[in-house]
Each structure stands twice: as C-alpha cells, then as structure tokens.
Structure of Cobyric acid synthase:
Amino acid sequence: MKGSLLVAGASSDAGKSMLTAGICRWLHRRGVDVVPFKAQNMSNNSAVTHDGAEIGRAQQLQAHACGARASADMNPVLLKPGGDRHTHVVLHGKPLGEVSALDYRELKTTLRQAVLDSYDRLRAAHDVVICEGAGSPAEINLRETDVANMWLADQRDLATLVVGDIDRGGVFAALFGTLALLDERDQSLVAAFVVNKFRGDERLVAPGLRMLHDLTGRQVLGALPWLPGLVIDGEDSLSLVRTLSGGPPVGEEPLHVAAVRLPRTSNATDLDALGCEPGVVVQWTTSPAEVAAADLAVLPGSRATVSDLEWLRATGLADAVTERARRGRPVLGVCGGYQMLAETITDDVESRTGTVPGLALLPTRVRFDAAKTLGRPTGHAGGITVDTAYAIHHGVAEPTGACEEFLGGWRRGSVWGTPWHGCLDTDAFRRAFLREVADAAGRRFTPAPGTDVAALRDRQLDLLADAVADHLDTGALDRLITAGPPAGLPTVRTLLTREATA
C-alpha cells in the first residue's frame, strides 16, 4: 500500500488531530509503514524530538501512533502566537524569528518550499503519509498564502477528507459550506466527509449522511462516535475548558488541582498526566478563589511570560498564588510559570521589557537568552529517574539564596519550579510528587499504584483506531489513500444548476 491523504476540518477543534492519529494507528496495526505530516501548525503546545527539533505536540503523538520516531519533517512550519499581532515562527524545528501577520505573507515562498521538501522526503522514505490540515480549508481570505490545506492538496494531488464536529451543531451546513466556498480546483480534491463526535443511535444520523452525499456527490465515510475520556495531548486551546479527572480516589480524599489558564498558555498537556490519576481533579481556571482553595496551584508554561505575569497581577491571581505559598500551600511552576516565581525577570528577547519583578516565591533571578534551549533532559528527584521531560525555553534561572535543586529548576518549601515540560509523565515521580503535595495540603490522598500514562496513551490511540475500523468505510478510505481524488467530482455550482433545472 502506497499513497497519501489530507485530513481537513470544517472548523478548528473539529477532530483533525485525533482522526489523523486514529487513521495512523489503524494503518500501523495493519503493518503499513505510515507517518504523519502537518505542513503548518499554529499551536503553543509543542514537543522536542530526540534530535532537538521543536514540532507540534500533536505530530509527536501521531508519530507515536505510527510506531515512528518524530522528526522536524513531520511539522516543518510551527507558529507559536505570542500576542495578537506577532507570532514566533519555527522552521524545520529551529527558531526563525518573530513576524507580524503582514510580514508572514512575505515568507510564503520560503515556507512553501520547506513544506514541499519535508513532504517529499517523507513520501520517499515511507509508504503512506497522512497529512493534517490547519484550521479550515474554507478560510478564503487566507487561501493566497495557504501552505497547509488546499494548496498542499493541489501541489501533490491529495484526496482531501473533511471532518466536522456534530457536537457543536450545524455540522451538515459546515461540511456543505466548506465545499461550496472553495474554487473549482480545490473542490475537485475534496473527496469525502466524516462526521465526528456523534452521540446516540447511528440510525438517527444516517439520513443526514445520505442527503449530504446526494447534495455534494461526495462519499460520506461515516460518523465517528463521541469518545469520552480522551484527555491525552489535546492540541487546541479550546480543550482548556475541560476538567480532567481519572476517576474516584483510591484513598480517603481526592486532590484538587487548580491550573491557571494564562492568556498565552503553552504546553497545557503537562497537566494531562495529573488528570489521569484516580482521585486527582484538574480544573483549568481564572478564578482567584479557586486557586486559593485548591490543594495544588499550577502556573503552566507561557508563550509570553512577562505579559502573562502582568495579567496575573491585574486579575488578582498573583495575590492568590502568593498568599497560598506564604501559608505553605503547594505551588508548582512549569517553564514560563516557573520563571514567574523568580524575584526578577530580565527579558530583552520576547517582551523586550528589560527587568521586571517576579512573584518572589523562589530565591532566583531569570534572564532570557537569545538562543532557545531545546532538548530532552534527564534528571533525578528523590532518587527517581525522570526521563520523559523536554525543554523549550529562553529564560534561564540562577539562585540568589538557599533553595534545593528540582529537575533543572529550584524548590523552596512547598513551592516547586522546573523549566522542563513532561516531567509528570514519569509515573513514579508523579506519584511521589502527589504524596508530597497531599502531605503539604493536609489531604488523606493515596496515589494509585498502577497508573501508567504511556500505556493509557496507547490505549487511547487504539480506541481511536477502533473507531476508524468500526465506524468508517475503510475500503473507501484505502482507495482515497492509494488512488487519490476520484476523477469527475462535480462542483457545487454544477449540482445546484442540475437541481434548478430538474
């Protein structure tokens, strides 16, 4: 089997990333040499490959679904928003610089060549490449500079599958409208639809699927069911509205975690491992009262540390975090959140604000280096080896007073800070950390002895693959991958003209 396919979405968070992962896993389980590809990703949830390249977190998960080692070619262009008008561009895994929306248009030629080079290398080295689009292919105001959706499909003649989220309502209008807004060449590449997140008896949605086929002349491969409990590696910021909980506690009491939802939160997936633990409830929040009341408060990573710190102060959240630390209540800062815990932050790189005061909860000072630190560090905490971490940061902290080393960072009392993402994925460390948190919070909480985050991730990938196998027309899916877009697909204008003259 050889070929390729583009999975596009009728909207952001329609399920492109999860469907791509599910198709990848389904193919991998059949022995197909398959890898993922996302030409351009806009996300502050990133990961670091084993050779030190920064890519979107979802592509790392999809590579894992394929049984492959993630590489920069799987996500050649990564955009990390740092504000409303400027974005940090990562090209082939390395920082390119900050650009405005208008500057970005000038990069089009460079980025498009990088995208095609990466895609072609993957196609030459593997039998199947499953591509994921970005946002919606019907963002017609951006078609001229598109690199991830219909431009890619046009350049490499890819059959395009469009997925829509029925849970939001209006899915049939979204799928039909996506097709209708495209020009004739792009419409000729859209070969099939998938409905995602359907709840209930599939017989209820079947008439709509048939009508969509009749209206568009495109195959409707099926309706994927709502899959509760998919908590691993959510890519879109919309997923931060969720509460994560691994179920009832093993011990006498649950443990409540308040994760501060910063305006520019990055690598929110750091908290997923906590949400897998029975008895641990992770709530993303902007409420000072919830932060004050929680057993553990977490300041996550940030794409704009100084700006988010200002917001933290303006909202009263800084006071809530500071007060709980003074009372010996646990606080954890990760990467940008760790930097906020310092006495001072000197940033002439991201915000270019010079030196500003931090929360002074750790006796450290932070200085931003122009060079970005990217790596897969290994460390020890309490005699436990932590080997799941990755580092993506400009800020470097040094101690100004007495504190303990903690996974590349520092700890004082009930305040922990680390520049490393992914530490909590190490099961033994996570359990030991939660015991300390429970003791400091005065909770009678017992960590579950058998929670295995890596195994849970694999089970969820298999659940996605099972959904593909059980609910989609997999024969048609195979044909789209191997044969490309079917010839003679009608345009919406042609279909409407036929309807009007019938």
